[in-house]
Amino acid sequence: MLLTICVKEAKINIAKKIVPLIQDEMVILIGGGDIAIELVKQLPETLVATFFTISPLVAVELTKFQNLEVVLIGGLFSKDAKITFGGHVINQITEIKADLCIVEANGLHPKNGLTDSELAISQLKKAMLNAAQRSAILCYAERLNTSLKTRVAKLNEIDYLVTELDKSDKKLKAYQAAFLQKGQLTPVFI
What we know:
By secondary structure, this protein is α/β, with parallel strands linked by helices. It contains six helices and twelve strands. Helix content is 32%, strand content 26%. The longest helix has 17 residues, at 2-18. It is globular. This is DeoR C terminal sensor domain-containing protein.
């Protein structure tokens, strides 16, 4: 019960941190997952934007907002991840020119970057990140320092890293150090 409460609080904290990045008239490409659904619940009712998503669950939440245009990208459906995926989905994503891409991390490591356990999902997330001017990675602290078998993106390809932690938390030091060594200022820790 306590773990469930902590996970819910972490999810809400991450979602609230990213809301200020979303502005009127933006085109947003958003993945699936619990944090993405919570993020939608935190959006201001007056927001005017276009959302592309690979998640039917996220799309349903987005339809509760009168001023949002919602585009569900269709293809094969993963019963486990509750998202669409595959070549057809990736082809559709390559036609999108988003202002911001928001994806949830399954694994994030200071040296290996954003990773995933499934190649098909890794390729999908990579296409999503490439379709946007800026990227925001949503990551539970428990998934930090985790390297899974397929790489999605290097750390220097990420614009915003959003966790439930305070940006000065010692768990983020390795990520900050990785960027300082390369003379890079990104990602912004939120």
